[in-house]
Amino acid sequence: MIRRIRPITVILTASLVAAILLIAIFVPTVFSGQNLANLALASSITMIAATGQTLVLMSRNLDLSQGAMVMLVALSTGMIHGATGAPIALLLPFAILLGALLGAVNGFIVAYLAVPSIIATLGTAGVFRGIGFFVADGSQVSRNDLPVDLIEFAKLQVLSVPAPFYLAILIAAAFVIISRSTVPGRTLVAVGYNEPAARLRGIATKPVIVSAFVLSGVLCGAAALLFAGIFGNVNPSDATGLELQTIAAAIIGGTSIAGGKGNFIGTALGALLLALILNVLRISDIDPLWQLAIQGLVILVAATIAHRSSGMRGRVKKEMVSL
Amino acid sequence: MTDSVSFAPLSVLEARGLHKSFGATRAVRGVDLVLKSGEIHAALGENGAGKSTLIKMLSGSLLPDDGSVYLESEPVRFSSPRDALRAGISTIYQEVASFEGLTVAEQISVGKWPTKRGLLSARAMHESAREVLSELAPALKTSQLMSSLSLADRQLVEICAAVARGTRVLIMDEATASLSAHEANRLYELARKMADRGCAVAMITHRFEEVMSHADTYTVLRDGRLIETGQITDTSEAQLIELMAGVEVETSVSPDRNLGPTLISVEGLSREEEYENISFEVREGEIVGLAGLVGAGRTEIGETIAGWRAADAGAVICDGTELKNGSRNAAARAGVSYLPEDRARHGLVLAASVSTNLTVEVLGKISWWGLIQRRIERAIAKRRMQLLSISARTPSQRTSELSGGNQQKVAIGRRLESMPRVLILDEPTRGVDIRKKHEIHDIVRDLASGGAAIVIISSDFPELALLSDRVEVIFRGKQVAKFSAPVDASALLDTAMRGGAS
Amino acid sequence: MKFLRSFAARPEFGALVLLPIAFLSASLMSPFFFVGENLANGFVQYTELGLLALGLTFVIISGHIDLSVASILALSGVALGRSLQAGWPVEVAVLLTLAVGLSCGLVNAILVTRTGLTSLIVTLGTFALFGGIAQGLVGYSSIGELPESFVGVDRLLFVGIPLPIWIFAVCAIAAAVLLHGSVAGRKMVLTGMNAEAARYAEINTARVEYWVFALSGLMAGLAAVLLVSRSGVVVYNLASGYELTAITIVVVGGASIYGGSGSILGTVSALVLIATLQRGMSLAGIAAPLQLVVIGVLLIGSIAGQSIFRIVRTRVNSSRKSGSIPIDA
């Protein structure tokens, strides 16, 4: 295997280190053991969902329904447990399958109905959230409705690092391998870089795009379980704006919005950086409501830098005659 | 027939009686073509002769209206390039289908990945790529990124990918159009190696020397019909050029115009990697042709005069004053108007109505305090439609619904509305049927008689010969020859293809 | 017949055909729907969305998208609330609000024309940025106790109809004249159809982009004035989610998401259609969340409909052979 360390990874690591140094000087309380554990725990949800967002971005699309998917899966899992007491062994596959189904709906609309992904997922985000409000019917899922195993897992620490964080890292690492050295992974990369050319090479590109969305749904399903376990309650307006965090994390991580190029390590670092910023805000007594503005700024700045530094301006023009 | 001892060439791909029409234009009418194993076959013809259409039917990009295609004697029907690819027919285009973030080895393997226990076997992939590369393009490394390669190298990789797929028929559709002669030669050497392995190769090119030095057999097309097919060794360049040009149909109207003083002159115009030291002048009432092959730099020169590009050196002088370099406004104010080559993408807004297109450059004239006066707009459109006999149902018909010829008249009509003094027409009759072509020629002559200075850029050499008072030949960015009326179309073609050096 | 066919090809066709059906079913579902007062009260709540949709119509027709409209509304609303709170005269505060809306639109325009990023990404970023600044400035508390002279614009009647509806009507007519009757509107449509060809026709497409994003921002500012006056309070999630409904209105109104076609009449009829649907559903006791589902399905359905229509038409055209393809390249 050829090692390819991207310059963006270096820049990102460097700025992360610089940020940590600055914070260590000005807001040293960030580095208390407990706070670091909190930070890692908080970043794990974003990190898992952002891995899914990276896959969708690689296919030259965008998934704006991630927040709604996480909420809907968490909510329905909790409600089912609350009503039937189903064990985690059943809830886990349920959550994953529900996520896959929601992702498949997105993928079908984008690939087969030819609706631009941003519009399609903006629409399904509304639909999913509407369904969430409807099934919740004014109530919410509380701690008692959630399986104990889930809450225990969220609390679990190994070597004083929260277990969910290990899970998030494991998932990101798995996708590094999948995207670099499996056939489906490389096919997704090829489709993202040049869909018409991939079609010319005999690849059925639509199923590839659908599977990127399905995986985003699956990972949101996993993130939803963590979400429920960590926060202990779920209501239908939860996880709004998660998609902006994941997009920001992926873009800072060097994933290109023009498709093809995905960097899962970068995405994980990006998610960590965002969590760090939020954490610093919280500790410095700045209203967490400002975090949205910061995400917006991060998306704009990172996208502009990525656009300027890559030679993709020429590439967009070079669309082949579509067939 | 040559007495080849080694093996009798086997027919790999055969086309019988292919037909294809676009609207009223019959692009290909009843053409047969046979591609044999071990042979490089050149499809020859002028612009609009139907060679690209023919090749596109073999590579699966177009479905024939009639006729059949046989692959190794089995009838086949390709409804997409993918079908053709699966059958072992690979096409190399001028634009490479490359995946920029992938390595050379991956580019070769896309769609046919070697695996080992479910995982992509990087070793097998690199090994098989290395195998192909070492034989065909030893200078390339398997781990290089596609985005780091030159256009020519990407073309080479595409051919290597075709070899790795086990291609039986290789089609090179203008594959060398953007390459230098040296790079093109490397590509043809590769094609020859493939032919030696038993592949059948078909090529389309605008460069004659490539045909003479690399092809074994040829087919000449003219007006969509098959004119002749044979061995390159049995013919000569002059003979082929004559076959391509054919007998002239349109009778030349003697340029019986009064030429006025010089209106526009181009002095030593240069632009890096595009053209250098171009100088000519056009008088009032004069038609000057810029002849050259696609990619020779003609369009770039036209766009520079009209202010769409900035020149690195030189000047454009209109009516005694130098135009500001690279300023569209300055050119427009001086009365210079440019008709772009690509009608569908640049020349017209096809989705808009005929009247919208005809009046887009004179929006000020048809509006009052920023509000469009529909009555005036309609009147102007109707008058222009009448003057140029544009056949559209109403001025509000969508331009995309018109035939190619009528669309082109709308595109020209739009430029006339602002009453230009200098009109640069880039390929004004491409994709236009014969009758409409003559009508457009008449329009151009009328304009010149009215005192406009006209520059026609074209690779349709009989057209240039017919219309122009003078023709400048551009070859690879350089001005290589000059012809004055009466211009000999065959001589023009010959110079444009070979750069004048005989 | 010929008239019918040309009408069917117009962008507003779908919305106009669905409108009487929606009216009818809304009146059937609830006998209260058609009571005059109810109708006016119902629609007055939609004037802000209507203004956002008018601005968006320009953006979408010229081939772009603006996901930030609701955030611009929120930010302008916060500026309004804070300046009124500080005791500024109402006129000055309103002007400031419009100026904030306009500036946000210009920020979008600058980013789109200068960075080379698509308007999708730019306005996704500014959606978070403007909205985030707004909610950061407000915090979890709300801005209330606004001056009496400002609050309650919806209770002012003119010829029996609430003032906001008049304001919307005037804006819609002005927008129709601008889009369908002016040189600027013509340039927007041409840019949306084919930006490259528009540039070859001496149209300054960057200037067109400035115009449409500025208009969209200004409309959001105006909507903020109406919304804050109507509700009398500014909260941190003011107008959140409005962008989804506004985009849905424009698209259901027949504007092509790829630019180049659409009409103000279409947007207005889609607005009335969606208002009718939601009012009808509310009066019939259908929960608000399900209405969100309906909006999402409408959005996706109308774009899927458009693209399927487009695919079928190109298939038909190419089998009929349009002759527009240059034959030999």
Name the descriptors:
heterotrimer, A: 323 residues, mainly alpha, globular, disordered C terminus, C: 329 residues, 72% helix
Structure description:
The complex is a heterotrimer of chains A (323), B (502) and C (329). With 323 residues, chain A is mainly alpha-helical. Chain A is 73% helix and 1% strand. In chain A, helix 3 (66-84) packs antiparallel against helix 4, helix 3 crosses helix 10 (205-231) and helix 11 crosses helix 12 (264-283). Chain A is globular, with a radius of gyration of 19 Å. The two termini of chain A are 35 Å apart. With 502 residues, chain B is α/β, with parallel strands linked by helices. In chain B, a hairpin with a 2-residue loop joins strand 19 and strand 20. In chain B, 33% of the residues lie in helices and 27% in strands. The two termini of chain C are 41 Å apart. In chain C, 72% of the residues lie in helices and 1% in strands. Chain C is built from 14 helices and two strands. Classes of the chains: A mainly alpha (323), B alpha/beta (502), C mainly alpha (329). Chains in contact: A-B, A-C, B-C.
What is the strand arrangement across the widest sheet of chain A?
Answer: 1-2
* Order of SSEs of chain A: HHHHHHEEHHHHHHHH
DSSP summary: helix tally of chain C: 14
Strand content of chain C: under 5%
Give the quaternary arrangement of the chains.
heterotrimer
Tally of helical segments of chain A:
14
Short description:
The complex is a heterotrimer of chains A (323), B (502) and C (329). With 323 residues, chain A is an all-alpha fold.
List the helices and strands and how they pair.
The complex is a heterotrimer of chains A (323), B (502) and C (329).
Chain A: H1 7-26, H2 33-58, H3 66-84, H4 88-111, H5 117-136, H6 148-155, E1 157-158, E2 161-162, H7 163-181, H8 183-193, H9 195-200, H10 205-231, H11 242-252, H12 264-283, H13 291-309, H14 312-317
Helix pairs in contact in A: 1-12, 2-7, 2-10, 2-11, 2-12, 3-4, 3-5, 3-10, 4-5, 4-10, 6-10, 7-8, 7-12, 8-10, 11-12, 11-13
Chain B: E1 11-22, E2 25-36, E3 40-44, H1 51-58, E4 66-71, E5 74-76, H2 81-86, E6 89-93, H3 104-109, E7 115-116, E8 119-120, H4 122-136, H5 151-164, E9 169-173, H6 181-196, E10 200-204, H7 208-214, E11 217-222, E12 225-231, H8 237-245, E13 262-271, E14 275-283, E15 287-291, H9 298-305, E16 313-318, E17 321-322, H10 328-333, E18 336-339, H11 343-347, H12 354-359, E19 367-368, E20 371-372, H13 374-387, H14 404-417, E21 422-426, H15 434-449, E22 453-458, H16 461-467, E23 470-475, E24 478-484, H17 489-498
Parallel strand pairs in B: 3-10, 3-11, 6-9, 9-10, 15-22, 15-23, 18-21, 21-22
Antiparallel strand pairs in B: 1-2, 1-4, 4-5, 7-8, 11-12, 13-14, 13-16, 16-17, 19-20, 23-24
Helix pairs in contact in B: 4-5, 5-6, 8-17, 16-17
Chain C: H1 2-8, H2 13-29, H3 36-44, H4 47-61, H5 69-85, H6 90-115, H7 119-138, E1 157-158, E2 161-162, H8 163-181, H9 183-193, H10 195-200, H11 205-231, H12 242-252, H13 264-283, H14 288-320
Antiparallel strand pairs in C: 1-2
